[in-house]
Amino acid sequence: MKIISHSYINPKGAFLNGQNVLIATEENYLKSYFSELEIDYSKFYKMDLLSKAAFLGDYLLHNSYKDLLNVENELQFVFANASSSKETDIRFIESYERKKNPSPSLFVYTLPNILTGELAIKHKWFGENIFYILTKFDSDFFNDQIAMSFLRGNEYCLCGWVEMTGSPEDECFMFLVAKSEVVNENLSNKLNEILNNYRNE
Amino acid sequence: MSELKEQLKSQIIEQLNLEDLTPADIKNDSPLFGDEGLGLDSIDALEFIVLLDSFYGIKIEDPAAAREIFHSVDSMAAFIESKK
Amino acid sequence: MDIFITGYGVISAIGKNVEENFSSLTQERTAIKQGLKSYTSKFKVGEIGLSNDALKAEFDLKTDGSRTALLGMVAAKEAFKNHSHFDTLRTGLISGTSVGGMDISEVEYRKQMAGEEPNFKQYFHHPSGTTSEQIAAELGITGFVNTISTACSSAANAIMIGARLIRSGQLDRVVVGGTDSLTQFTIFGFRSLMIFDDEWCKPFDNSRKGLNLGEGAGYIVLESQKSLETTGKIALAKLTGWSNASDAYHQTASSPDGDGAILSMNQALKQAELEPKDINYVNAHGTATPNNDLSESKAFINVFNGKVPPFSSTKSYTGHTLAASGGIESVFAILSIQNNILFPNLNHTSPIEETGLIPIKNIQKNTEVTHVLSNSFGFGGNNSTLIFSKI
User: Fold this and answer.
1) Which ipTM value was assigned to this complex?
2) At the N or C end, where does chain C have fewer CB atoms within 10 A?
């Protein structure tokens, strides 16, 4: 298996394959990346932090998957984070505790896997999708999940570690993996290297 | 009426968590639902029902029937005025 | 490689173990009624009538946890009872949940918002992952533990991932399933979506209005052939098919034609090397919402080429137990196989106009049940299907 491309988004900037492509121009950095990329997708505005970050992370990668064959059926989403949908959960609680009106549009996002749903909706991709809760980014875990996915017959995995709680340490690390001739290559070290480089930017 | 419309736009932004938008981003006669508009859907229609109740004291029992009222800022403002 | 099931455990509104659940199912006895808690009293729900302290006492639970964790411990313990630990056997636990420890944290958070000093230690119970770790600790499982959070398909996905871990040689034996408790958070959330039925829900009925929420937990134990040689367990059934697909339509609604459901059912059948006509019973997702039941019905007609096998939603017994539903309903699927029995779809009067499909109306005993298909569809368009087969 091989990593075709990777992207990284945090409050400081947006990166594609190790290159810095955008710098945050305002505190609402997700909005600033969205505007600068001139994306036409009105549904972006109502998404929560997780879905917005994953949407942008995925958008940066789009050149690398637009020519892939049968990606709508052969791609599996493998996503994870540590805090689930905590940021939205708290806003939802406040909507009924403080404002006395539970908000349906917030409730919709009180599940971390809605972000993979949003990507599937945007692309009309019907492949498998799963969301795990892990204590921290675990490259071995992702490696094993990808290996299992390919064993099952998937051709590609779009993976992401999307930890967004509204803090300066927020990050969205996404990578696209495809099958290759080297079947048993372990991507663990490579993934750690890529992520550490991004974190140290 | 135009003051009501500006107020409505702020309330829509707040109620639907569209924090990235400003009232200037929403045109009075633009469709709010569907891809041409703000990309709102049936869940957001539920939010509008909450909005009409909490800000204007107007209760709507049937979400499906209310779609026409929520078509645009213009139609919502007209509806609110008619209930005064 | 065959995946064998060598244990099952369940706690729901209709019973606190497998035997009680089975008894309620066969006696067509629903547990959906007016809620007893302050935040459930206005709704019809499938509540478990045991407090957290009562759960700890009755089931002799040694590990502390939120209600979600405690319910999980009860069901997982039942599934794993009579199982022992072996040094040579790599045993894991994969659990699905959407609520996690929110039943505790929502109370503390409210205190905080009221300006009181919360007990910060209680927030330790909050994370979904903590729930799984507490269940594993109660069972003495020290191997691989993981947590899946994909809404109402979480337990089904946990079962699927468990099977894959065994097949790929990473585990020999795994406890899989899910758990969720009723919280104010979920009650308010579903109410805001206006998809409740104020009365007892009516899955697949033309006049259905929405769902009733429930709580509970369901777990099964999966083993490889090699593992069986060590544990010496008798298999209850086999897990022969599993699949997951995206509906790619909306965050919470299902596509009108059930695209994701069609994909997950077809793929599961393909994996099980079965034809649609081989399925003897379908335990539907069947939440009783206008949207799901129509969408799922259309998917049935498509997948089964018009000849839909006997099907029912058992959510008219237990309520919709969210992340636990795939686990609880897997136990029901296995009971159906073991006892050659078809469970009815309670509270059904008239079929959905657009499809005319009639679910199982009354309990049917002495019916040869070899293969059962079970659906669990989660928000986010996360559609999962499992197939269980007789040994």
Assistant:
1) 0.78
2) N
